[in-house]
Amino acid sequence: MPHKLRTSTLVVASCLLLAGCKEKRHSDNTPHVAKASLNLLASPGAASGVGMASARARQQKLAYDHDLQLRVPAGLVERHFNALRDSCLQDVDLDCTLLNARVSHDFTGGRPSARIEARLPHQAVGRFIENATRPLSGETAQDVAVTAQSTTAEDLTPQVEDTGRRIRQLTAYRDRLEALGGRDNVRTEDLIRIAHELSDVQTQLDDAQSNQRVLDHRIDTELVTVSYDSLVPEAGPTSPLAEAWRNARSTFIESCADVLLFCMMAIPWVPVIVLAAGIGRLAMRRWKWRPWTRKNSVK
User: Which residues form the DUF4349 domain (predicted)?
Assistant: First the structure.
C-alpha cells in the first residue's frame, strides 16, 4: 500500500510539474509575441513606408512657370537671343519646345529687347537657364545681370481628377452601349439611336482624353520665359532732350486723348451751364430794375 501511494504521488507530481512547465512556456511566449508586434509597428521602416504612402496619396499635380529677366549690353541682345533660341532648337538633350521667340528694335534710338518662351522637362530647366545666363565670347559674368526672377506653380490636381473621372464614366457608358448594340434582338430604330449616342459619347471621350493629355504635358514639363533687356546708357548733357524727342509723338497723342476725353465729359454739362447763366442773368436784371422802380415811385 505504501508503495502504491508513493507511485501515485510521483505520478501526480509529474503531472503537476508538466502542467506548470507548459503554463510557464505559454506565459513566456505571450509577451514575446506582443513585443514582436510592437517592434514591427514601431520600426523605422514601417513608419517610413506609411509616411511615403501618405505622401503619395497627397501628391499634388503642379504645373510650374518660370520667368527670368536679364540685362545685357545693347549690342549683344540679338546675339544672346540667337544663342538661346538655337540651343532650344538644336540641342537634342534639352528636349526643348520653342513656343515664342521675338526681338524688338526701337529705331528712334531706344534699347532693343528680346523674349523667348520654351517648355522643357523638369531635368532640363536648370541647363536651359544656365544657357540663358552664360556670357558670350568677349563678355564677362558682370555683363549678364539678372534683374528679376520668379517661379509660380498652378495646382492641377482637381482638373486631373475630374478629367480622369469623366473618362472612366464615358468609357463605361460607351462599353455598355456597344454591348447593347451587339445583341441579336435589337430593332433597327434602336440600333440607329444607339449608333447616334455612341458617336456623341465617343466625341466627348476624345475631348476628355485630349484635355488629359494637355494636363499631363503641363505637369510633366515646365514653362520658362527669358527676357533680354539692354543696359541703360550713361546719361549725357543732351539725354533729357533726346528722351523728350523720342517720346514727343506718344506725348502728343496722349495729350490729344486727354483733350478729347475732357470735351466728351463736358458736353453733357453745356445745357446746364447755359441754363444757369440765363437764370443768373435774368435775376441780375430784376435785381437792378427793382431799386430803380422804387426810386421813381418815391419821386
Answer: 60-280
Secondary structure (3-state) at 276: helix
pLDDT digits (tens, 9 = 90+) for 191-216: 899 999 999 999 999 999 999 999 99
Give the separation between CA 83 and CA 78, rounded to whole angstroms. Answer: 9
Q: Could you tell me if 262 and 255 are in contact, meaning their C-beta atoms sit under 8 angstroms apart?
A: no
* Residue 103 near residue 81 (C-beta atoms within 8 A): yes
| Euclidean distance between CA atoms 122 and 18, whole angstroms | 70
- List the grid coordinates of 113: 529687347
What residue spans of 182-269 are helical by DSSP H? 188-220, 239-246, 248-266
- What are the distances in angstroms from CA 113 to CA 6, 43, 249? 114, 59, 21
Residue with cell 534639352: 94
**Predicted TM-score (pTM) of this structure:** 0.56
Is 187 in contact with 195 (CB distance < 8 Å)? no
CA angle 65, 69, 70 (to 5 degrees): 140
Residue 294: strand, helix, or coil: helix
Separation of alpha carbons 251 and 200, rounded Å: 57
For the record, the C-alpha cell of 110 comes out as: 531706344
Which string of DSSP letters, residue by residue, matches 54-77?
HHHHT---EEEEEEEEEEE-GGGH
